[in-house]
Design a protein that fits this description.
heterotrimer; A mainly alpha (293); B alpha/beta (243); C mainly alpha (333); B: alpha/beta; 9 helices; C: 333 residues; mainly alpha; two-stranded antiparallel sheet; 16 helices; 2 strands
Chain lengths: 293, 243, 333
């Protein structure tokens, strides 16, 4: 009879494990939105790119994604940096939704490009770790790859948080977020910091893609759902707050997991959006935010 | 047609922006609110036009309680206002900007256009009627603010720092125009000003705010010499200068 | 001159009516139907997105509700055309609910909210197979049984012409001015007595009605719909892009945008096949970078066409920070 408790706990645990990965993606989006108020519709495509890069390297060298993810991170940092300076900065003066439109167009190019290069088929990889399960107590299992990705994601999230709060870069980025006009007057090279922020956010998406590869099917439009979920996390977490987005990621993971358990997989994304709408209508500043949206 | 502010207070978080302020403005009067930076002057205007609502106290206009309306209802009741930071509708022309105000009283674009043109002529802006608001310099934009408010045919008009940022000559020119507002049936004017030359020239009464509290009121020449007023602006060291 | 745009359009619509007499294949008529449909949808979106400046990326919601309305109400036994009316009604009701929640939000939050609503509808349609047929889809009655291709084409032209006339009327009315004022500066509009919430809502209701009607027509042409076809974000994006490519906030914009985009898409589909989405993406990026005001908008501001008095359409850049700086020095609080 206690079985349902164990089943629920398992779902919650799985949700937390997934949630850490979500948190990484969401923090990347929150950084970009917080520093530049850009709603980045290319975020999912960057995740997809990270995933394909990791796939290609794995096929060529056999190195596990859990070791080679820095490659995806580094490459996506470059992609993000260049994208910001080349495409986004020139249109900074325009209304918000031009940026949305541009990032949408860019995503289309990347996704369709991936389809042209890799085909529309689903890919997956096999690593020995996949079949390892770790037992917790008598009834709960943790699938080893998820534990590893949780650990890596959690570590990266902490590092990102530390960077934003304790480094010169982080302080400069926060200064720009608070007052983009005053920041240059204090010697901050706004363009470079913003480009770096965009690069870091994109790198987070790319690394998340790498970590996803062992446990998720790879196909050109894989990034779409994660992009939508990052919006949800940014709103739930409040106005570009990185910590908020991280917690929101964990919350989202658990909520989806429980939804899948009791109502079925297909409702998970719908529940995300309902949560999103609820927060936007009742507390637009986010569950953890304090200012007005 | 008069404005009565009774025991109004407003806080924002921990800060008491307006502290138990009371005053009234009689029809035909030109009243100015002055005070150092951060005194709460714009907040007071925002309370009168229902951008914010008072935590306590009440505001009556023309006999009605207007403390808890919406900004657009306040405009419909006959209160016009300009903004400190000019907010023109940049992608529309000067004429179209002012037509927006005129539309409060008519739904016909033709009549709105006529009324708007009339107001703009009064403010000596005929030359820029069809230019986009975006390219205008500050003096014109300030007049545009006033024109738009005038086109709503208000009974009371609130001018927030209407000459701020203008060179003195421009400011005086504008002030002289403002003195003619009663010709437009606006019997009552309220303003916020730093530029004392304007205040001295056209105000009948002056209200002094400091840290959200009303510290003095009366005719401009009297108020300006009062010790509390000088202290508020310059600090206690200068109190002795007052004679 | 604004009237020039109306004249051009009228000539265009009248000429369009005669097209079926010269065009040989049903397939071409279907393509042309799509051009007109998206012109109508773009005009409908333009009211909210162009004139009122509220970027909706969830218009597929109304499109899909109109489509599913026709399908599901006729499943209940109601004849086709009354079902269309009911579908349109449902689209308007959806708009009322979505608008009430979304319009309280500004900027990107509004856009994201519209996406969320449309996605929820899509997922609901997918996951309730007993009601909507789920992913398998649902049948849609044929609104025209006799010479269908021509009838759909003419209904498309009629819908577009009506949407155009409506937009032209709105543009000259006080309502249109209010929408533009809300777009430029909502606080200023409020301060002169504009009821912004009500205006935005009305624009959305009208927009949703036209969009829903378009959805019903589209569904009926295909005789069968699935959620990922009529409630997809791709539809929302396509509608917005048609309007913006042509020129958001202009009268002819959506018309021009649809002609250019839909014919280009048709051409690309045949020539480039797999890469057509990529070209689509490149097109969007180029437009944003080099022609943010859209075709008509750029023609108006750069070449001075279509101007009575200089009115610059919507996507022009925001003011420099410097302007605000001179004022900040004089601010009291």
């Amino acid at each position: 009879m206690l079985n349902w408790i164990y089943v629920a706990l398992q779902a919650i645990l799985n949700g937390l494990l997934t949630g850490a990965l979500y948190a990484l993606i969401g923090m990347g989006m929150a950084l970009i939105f917080g520093v530049m108020r850009i709603v980045n519709f290319t975020h999912g495509a960057f995740l997809m790119m990270g995933m394909y890069i990791t796939y290609v390297v794995f096929q060529a060298t056999g190195v596990s994604p859990y070791y080679q993810f820095p490659i995806a991170g580094f490459l996506l940092f470059l992609v993000g940096y260049v994208t910001y300076l080349g495409l986004l900065r020139p249109i900074r003066g325009q209304v918000d939704f031009m940026v949305i439109l541009l990032t949408m167009g860019l995503a289309l190019i990347l996704v369709d490009g991936a389809q042209l290069i890799f085909g529309a088929d689903y890919h997956q990889i096999n690593i020995p770790l996949l079949s390892r399960n770790i037992r917790v107590g008598s009834q709960i299992f943790i699938n080893a790859p998820w534990l590893v990705s949780f650990a890596i994601a959690a570590a990266l999230a902490c590092i990102l948080y530390w960077v934003v709060t304790h480094t010169m870069f982080g302080r400069a980025a926060r200064a720009i977020a608070q007052n983009p006009y005053a920041a240059p007057l204090m010697g901050i090279n706004v363009n470079r910091i913003q480009a770096a922020a965009f690069g870091i956010g994109s790198a987070a998406a790319g690394i998340a893609g790498a970590l996803l590869l062992p446990v998720f099917y790879l196909f050109p439009d894989v990034g779409n759902q994660f992009k939508l979920k990052s919006f949800v996390m940014v709103v739930l977490g409040g106005m570009g707050s990185i910590q908020g987005a991280a917690i929101a990621g964990l919350v989202l993971g658990v909520v989806e997991s429980l939804t899948s358990l009791y109502w079925g997989n297909e409702w998970a994304l719908a529940v995300d959006f309902v949560l999103f709408i609820l927060v936007l209508s009742l507390k637009p500043s986010g569950i953890f935010g304090s200012q007005r949206a | 047609m008069f404005l009565e502010v009774k025991n109004v207070s407003k806080r924002f978080g921990g800060l008491k922006a307006i502290n138990n302020v009371s005053f009234s403005v009689k029809p035909g009067e030109v009243t100015f609110i002055v005070g150092p930076n951060g005194a709460g002057k714009t907040t007071l205007f925002n309370l009168i036009t229902s951008v914010f609502h008072p935590d306590s106290g009440s505001i009556h206009f023309d006999g009605r309680d207007i403390s808890h309306l919406t900004p657009n209802d306040a405009a419909k009741s006959g209160i016009g206002r300009t903004f400190q930071l000019v907010k023109p509708l940049r992608n529309l022309t000067v004429l179209e900007n002012v037509m927006l105000g005129a539309f409060l009283r008519t739904s016909s674009p033709g009549r709105a256009e006529t009324e708007a043109a009339r107001v703009l002529r009064f403010l000596q802006m005929e030359k820029v009627l069809h230019l986009p608001a975006r390219g205008m310099g500050l003096p014109m934009l300030k007049r545009l603010e006033i024109a738009r408010a005038l086109a709503t045919q208000p009974k009371l008009i609130l001018l927030d720092e209407v000459v701020a940022g203008l060179p003195t000559s421009e400011a005086i020119k504008l002030a002289m125009l403002l003195k003619r507002l009663p010709e437009w049936g606006i019997s009552t004017i309220g303003g916020i000003e730093h530029v004392m030359q304007v205040v001295m020239r056209i105000a009948d009464r002056v209200i002094v705010l400091d840290h959200g509290t009303l510290i003095a009121e009366g005719a401009p020449q009297d108020v300006v010499h009062r010790p509390e007023v000088i202290e508020a602006y310059l600090g206690s060291k200068y109190k002795e200068i007052a004679s | 001159m604004k009237n020039l745009q109306v004249i051009i359009a009228t000539v265009f619509f009248v000429a369009a009516l005669f097209v079926p007499l010269t065009v040989p294949t049903d397939y071409t008529l279907q393509v042309l139907f799509r051009v007109f449909l998206f012109a109508a949808l773009g005009l409908a979106w333009n009211l909210v997105g162009g004139y009122a400046g509220q970027l909706s990326l969830g218009h597929a919601a109304y499109f899909g509700v109109g489509a599913y309305g026709l399908a599901l109400f006729s499943k209940l036994g109601i004849p086709p055309w009354p079902s269309v009316a009911l579908g349109v009604l449902m689209a308007v009701v959806s708009a009322a609910m979505i608008g009430k929640v979304s319009f309280r939000l500004r900027g990107p939050y509004f856009a994201l909210c519209t996406i969320a609503f449309a996605e929820v509808l899509r997922l609901v349609a997918k996951n309730l197979p007993n009601v909507t047929g789920g992913d398998v889809g649902v049948q849609v009655p044929a609104l025209f049984t006799h010479s269908a291709a021509r009838s759909f084409y003419w209904s498309g032209v009629l819908l577009t012409a009506s949407a155009f006339a409506l937009t032209a009327w709105v543009e000259r009315s006080r309502f249109g001015y209010y929408l533009m004022a809300i777009r430029e500066d909502q606080d200023t509009a409020l301060s002169v007595g504009v009821n912004a919430s009500r205006c935005k809502l009305w624009a959305l209701l009208i927009s949703a009605a036209i969009t829903g009607l378009g959805g019903a027509l589209y569904a009926s042409m295909f005789l069968f719909i699935v959620p990922d076809q009529v409630l997809a974000m791709e539809i929302s994006t396509e509608i917005a892009i048609v309007a913006m490519l042509g020129g958001a906030g202009t009268l002819l914009g959506p018309l021009v945008g649809s002609v250019v985009l839909e014919t280009a898409a048709e051409v690309f589909k045949n020539i480039f096949k797999e890469a057509h989405l990529l070209i689509y993406g490149v097109l969007i990026v180029l437009v944003v970078l080099f022609m943010p005001e859209g075709i008509i908008g750029t023609l108006t501001s750069k070449l001075g066409l279509f101007k009575k008095a200089p009115r610059v359409p919507f996507a022009a850049p925001l003011p420099l920070a410097a302007e605000e700086e001179t004022q900040r020095t004089a601010i009291s609080e």
